[in-house]
Amino acid sequence: MTAGTTVRLTVGQAVVRFLAAQRSERDGTEHRLFAGCSGIFGHGNVAGIGQALLEAELLGDGPGLRYYQARNEQAMVHTAVGFARMRNRLSAWACTSSIGPGATNMVTGAALATISRLPVLLLPGDMFATRPASPVLQELEYPGALDVSVNDVFRPVSVFFDRIWRPEQLPSALLAATRVLTDPAQTGAVTLALPADVQAEAWDWPVELFAERVWHIPRPVPETVALIRAVQFIRAASRPLIVAGGGVIYSEACEELRFLAEHAGIPVAETQAGKGSLPYDHPLALGAIGSTGTAAANQMARQADVVIGIGTRYSDFTTASRTVFGHPKVRFVNINVAAPDAVKLAGCPLVADAQVALRDLERALGSWSTSDAYRAEARQLAAAWDDVVGRSYALGHQPLPAASEVIGAVNEAAEPTDVVVCAAGSMPGDLHKLWRARDPKGYHVEYGYSCMGYEIAGGLGAKLADPDREVFVMVGDGSYLMMAAELVTAVQEHIKLIVVLVDNHGFASIGALSETVGAQRFGTSYRYRDPASGRLDGDVLPVDLAANAQSLGVRVLRAATMTEFADALAEARRWTGGPVLVHIETDPTVRSPDSQAWWDVPVAEVSELDSTRRARAEYETAKTAQRPYLAPPESL
């Protein structure tokens, strides 16, 4: 119902109509900013956002905000993250929940999104603004203030937070939220908490609020002085190394990276988020770096005198807890759209979009290049590591295969543009060093928050973002047990995922880590408690996760050998009826090839256990290689 220049809508209806009208634009290409909305309804959102989504579905004229039914609130945020990552942060997803536990279930997903710099919009229901009968169902009574609810826990994990107490506050909140979501330097989880009564309240809104609005995604250019300084550092180097992070891929700067690497002769190592920036078989591609890196990349890193970090946060896994860059006078040149990341490791900052900065840097370097011998060294090390990968793929371990064999079979079954999705446990580290990436969007491992349970939900988001790609979700039994329910959403929507369930009857990653800290794999195997010993070291639990998936409506293929596994993958590729799961058991005690790098996990300083004392001695020795990287980036 419209009167003059206003339209009367509820707050929920206004939110849905606004989101449907937003567009993003970069390099002249427009995208729908909010491509969909996942939700689980309860008394805190069913009459507001829920009613509005229904009305838009039944009465909308044109593409609106399509609703997808989720099964777990944390999982639907993971789906939103997977979608945004696949779309290079140019499109996002909204998530609506009720109040109380439905809202707080989204907090873990919000932290993941913010840490990984990926845009998601969260719309949790909240307590009544008018307080007619407090405490309402699922309301926290905080004695220190009446304006605090459980939703305040979103504040530290959101890049923007607001609570809409009155309808007239909504326009400014929506505009501010969208500005942050479309800012590549600031983006992450954005939370607009919506009190249940306010969602259903009507207001006369200015019609221009709902006009189509295009948000330009900027490409900040490097400052001239900063560019000159960066060039001075690189020209003075004899052994420079590029560390490609996720910013290379989000900026769609892979071609610019390749051009710079080839013309200047600078080898490229990749973080988890940056893997795929160069094809694995490029002559200057060293593969993964750091604690889960390749021996090739880590050897070159130890001797690098200038490290050019592009779109990386320099996490402890990337720097091997600040031990991998071993040159006594190593300096860092950091290209990053976010200023706080650009100055890490006392680097020479180049605050700019990766694509623009790489073009400018290549032009400014001119004919400068590293030596032919340095290029050859990089090629030889990369080739040697690829031989290691090939042997790991064909290990032939008995009676159960090694995880590396499973990874190899999936890699060989996947086409170059197919996507592998993983997140936690031992497989992300194995994938980082062993997966032969051939496409910038073909490797999707969430390792910023390394959240167990992300895999299936994140894979669903990746598939929603790019339905033409085959998506392989690699998930261990530990992560599957935590969060597999979004398989039902995939069944409901006829969305095909190939889920590879690697079952090793426990937490393989922490089991291996437990050994390195002298904790003897304590609490990491799924076994009965032995009545005699009182410990969890009895027989293996009779859990059948493949049967669980089948009960959810998923087609299941079981494999007992690597030959059967390869056949099952081929059959899964041919399947067109929704999600399919391939189950295989592996031996958790087979280690992947050594990265020749360290990860700082503290070991108990005193212990009665010999295993812990030995681990502490090794830890103290490794700790001596740690460096602060505090030397100022002096001009050359």
Summarize the topology.
Layout lengths: L1 E2 L2 E5 H10 L1 E5 L2 E4 L1 E6 L6 H14 L7 E3 L3 H14 L5 E6 L3 H4 L2 H9 L4 E7 L33 E4 L6 H12 L7 E7 H4 L2 E5 L6 E4 L7 H12 L4 E5 L1 H5 L3 H11 L3 E3 L14 E4 L6 H9 L2 E5 L5 H4 L11 E6 L2 H4 L5 E4 L2 H12 L6 H22 L9 H11 L5 E4 L4 H8 L8 E3 L8 H12 L5 E6 H6 L3 H7 L5 E6 L4 H9 L28 H7 L3 E5 L2 H13 L5 E6 L24 H14 L13
Parallel strand pairs: 3-12, 5-6, 5-7, 7-8, 8-10, 9-10, 13-14, 13-16, 14-15, 16-17, 17-18, 19-20, 19-21, 21-22, 22-24, 23-24
Antiparallel strand pairs: 1-2, 2-11, 3-4
In short:
Helix 11 packs antiparallel against helix 15.
Report on this model:
Helix content is 37%, strand content 18%. The chain is built from 24 helices and 24 strands. The strands form 5 sheets. It has a 6-stranded parallel β-sheet with strand order 6-5-7-8-10-9, sandwiched between helices. The protein has a 6-stranded parallel β-sheet with strand order 15-14-13-16-17-18, with helices on both faces. Helix 3 packs across helix 18 (454-465), helix 10 (254-264) packs parallel to helix 14 and helix 16 (403-413) runs parallel beside helix 23 (562-574).
Order of strands in the sheet with most strands:
6-5-7-8-10-9
Helix/strand class? alpha/beta
- Oligomer state of the chains in this structure: single chain
Largest sheet: 6 strands, parallel
- Helical fraction equals 25-40%
% residues in beta strands: 15-25%
Overall morphology: globular
Q: Over all CA atoms, what is the radius of gyration? A: 25 Å
| Helical stretch tally | 24
* Average of the residue pLDDT scores: 95
What are the segments in which pLDDT stays under 50 over at least 5 consecutive residues?
none
Distance between the termini: 68 Å
DSSP E strands, number: 24
